Amino acid sequence: MVRSSTKRSRVRRAGESAFGLLLLGRNLLMAAVALVILVAGVWTSWGTAQYSMLTKGRELGTMTVARCGEKSCTGPFVATGTGGRDRRKVSVDEAVTHREGERLLVAVKPGTDEVVRTGWGGVLHAWVPLAGALMLAAVVVAGGLRMRRTAWGLGIAGVALMGVSFAVL
Q1: Distance set, CA 105 to CA 45, 66, 122, 132, 169 (Å)
Q2: Whole-model pTM?
Q3: Tens digits of per-residue pLDDT, 13-25?
């Protein structure tokens, strides 16, 4: 039995290993970019979500929407419970309300006159930045990492979270 074994040259072997390192570097970079996008989405969402979700010990009450501007709505705040005080004017993000005269269950951000909607609508609205991050990360995972099924899962999760949020509000 005759074997014909041809050895690859050192230059070819070095070129193959360098190309493998470039592919590995690209995959690591794309994974890092996707991870940074997701962490930024969670970080941004948590800034509001903590007041919507963790209401124990917070100043809770009802806000009646009196006037709406381009980005926020204002109105009086009536505290419910013993830990809060009534306020003449607080502001809430315009996206969480539909019309003037609406009464919202809210929590006051400590040290400010800003309120955050509580309940399912407020919690889901607080996580909308994460939904956007999921959709953006899906593009990076599909294009950069070539993981199409994972990308579809991320994208569908982002669209579902955003859709449910707007349906509940």
Answers
A1: 19, 15, 9, 25, 13
A2: 0.83
A3: 777 888 888 888 8
